[in-house]
Amino acid sequence: MLIGLFLAGWKVGVFAVVGSVVGLLTAWALGAPAVLIGEGIYGYNAVLTSLAFGVVLLRPTAWNYGFTVLAAAASTALTASLSVLFETFGSHTFTWPFNITTWALLAAVPLLPRITPLADDS
Asked: Bridge-partner residues for 117, per DSSP?
């Protein structure tokens, strides 16, 4: 899978790795069960969020890269929170954490002058 992401573009591969590492470290710091971390439950939303902000939505700047790492960590924390909520209904979070984190942080971008969307390049 990772080889395919790198074939899509070096930036895609790099941000997939960044998202995976951030998700893993955030889940570990939050005390998530090692089995679920190993299965990637806490990493895939972080990878999606990292790809969204690092490759698609934001310009390539140091501030934006930092924001991307923050977004990946936030989606991992939200995954943990929503997992508990959805478990009460016998369901799974799927990509809800990615969607919620991306929309919420994207809505904050206009209030953060150092975070610049890719659309501003025109």
From this structure: 58
Single out the residue of 56, 59, 50 nearest to residue 122, CA to CA: 59
Residue 35 lies in a domain: yes
Say if 121 falls within a structural domain: no
Q: Model confidence over 77-112: pLDDT tens digits?
A: 999 999 999 999 999 999 999 999 999 999 999 999
Question: What's CA 74's distance to the chain center, in Å?
Answer: 7
Find, among 20, 14, 36, 22, the residue nearest to 83 by Cα.
36
pLDDT at residue 57, as a whole number: 97
Give dist(CA 59, CA 106) in Å, integer.
13
Tokens 């990946």, located at residue: 72
Q: Is residue 87 part of a domain?
A: yes
